[in-house]
Amino acid sequence: MQYYKQPSESESYYNPCSSVEALETVARLVSSSPVVIFSVSSCCMCHAVKRLFCGMGVNPSVYELDQDPCMGKQIEKALIRLLGGASAMPVVFVGGKLVGPMDRVMASHITGNLVPLLKAAGALWL
Questions:
Q1: Best CA proximity match to 78, nearest among 17, 14, 3, 15
Q2: What is the pTM of this model?
Q3: CATH topology of domain 2-6+14-121
């Protein structure tokens, strides 16, 4: 898994705690990897989803929201807006598209729709 850290203060594009910056950060991270998981490090559901993808041979990019005290909250708010007001972690993107929180990821996996998504995104080759 690839983990992201908070940009340094020397990076001029970084404006801490901005909701616009949060949406831009989400868009940038989602476009940078076939599978992106927004997670909270102490969340058991987040851990389960990360293990699911790793167990399938997928190397997701993981953004731990609680590791970034300022921007993490703004990103979480942006994700809640994308989910239509539902507050649930983790939030998973595959191929730049929102899959959703754990219940949608697991439903996609159980119905057999997750593997084709992963293959189309280039995250799974089997």
A1: 17
A2: 0.84
A3: Glutaredoxin (3.40.30)
